[in-house]
Amino acid sequence: MSTFYLEQFGCRATQADGAALQRQLLDRGCRQVSEAAEADIVVLNTCTVTASADVQARDAIRKLHAANPAVRLIVTGCYAQRAPEELTQLPGVAWVVGNSHKPQIPELVGALSATLFPQNSGGFVSADSLFALPGSPDGARENILRGDIFGHTTLLSAPVFVDRNHTRPTLKIQDGCDSRCSFCVIPFVRGRSRSLPPEKVLREIQLLADQGYREIVLSGINLGTYGRDLSPGVEFETLLRRILGETSVEHLRISSIEPMDVTRDLIELFASTNRLAQHFHMPLQSGCDRILAAMHRWYRSEHYARRVELIHELLPHAAIGADVIAGFPGETEADHAATVSFIESLPFTYLHVFSYSKRPGTKAAALPSQVPGAVIRRRARELRALGEKKAAAFRQSQLGHSLRVLTLRRQDSDDSLWPDTTHGLSSNYLRVRVEATLDHNQWVEVQVSSEDSPFLVGTRVR
Known about the structure:
six-stranded parallel beta sheet; CATH 2.40.50; 32% helix; five-stranded mixed beta sheet; single chain; alpha/beta
């Protein structure tokens, strides 16, 4: 059997897809290697949320081919679903596989392996016969597997380990999106919202807890819509209650959730237990109602503000983060100023700022009054400076407090500016440098004494 190397780009959901592919390939007997140069087959799992993500993927393909011209490159993910023809033009690309056919990649790797090592073909189908598999596109071009993503019902899921010590695995429990925000290409490359059944969620979480993982992160493309596609339907809050009641996981964190799905009942659940991280990330995109309407967002600034204020009221030390887009088409200086003023008025603790990127096929791409690039970059800088100011104020507010911290990794004199310290993460999403030498994946109580951006610094009290 051939060797493979998996290269990942993009969001948590893309990382989760890659983890599922890794599991499937290993189950088929493929051997994973740590360097692309050592692999017979390289799978690139791409993102396409911005133009820069596309550029990053193309650059990676060119570099991989230049370093190892003999390697077979399989390009998959969101870019592959959106524009497969672009990718087939790049050197070294053997196959392009859209998200619609991502579950067939292990079969494709087996087929390619059979051509490389015919004596070990093991009954794999030929690559050409993949066109006859259920759901394959009619009249597909050679070396492209892509079909109707809206007919895609499979949810690939496997835990993602995001740091070198495998401390905080991420589990994707939802994929796809039924919304149609005018700037966003994601529904067209990931399809309809679909959910991992509750029993599978509970089983995966308990398996991770049994292996000693203390914090698990739940992720999805539109996490708050979890369970609406199931029969019978399941509310996201109901799933959380079942996880708390039926598994032994010590700490659960949720990734991004839309403000419409952050209800009083959900916030009260978070306030009722220390097993749920005091951390909400709610995409805002704009603080200007006119721009929100043009974006086809389902809320207005007043509704969003009420959610933030309620979180702060019930969980005064919670982390509250937001995504913001700078330079959406038609955004005036007054609209930008309204966004800045809105963010300043609320207790945000950090921002993720994105420069607007025109995505082919989205409604926003055809809107008049596209904002010049230099203006977009200047507005993005202003928003990032505001985000840094908010983050610094939040860190300052924690001085003198005691925080429960999960240790992530230990630093030593060989690889750190801060020898004999341990990095950790608090429930309210603050990076903490503990002045002690500790093993990773341990809960410690830390008395915060100072700030050293982007860290808080403290000593262990127990």
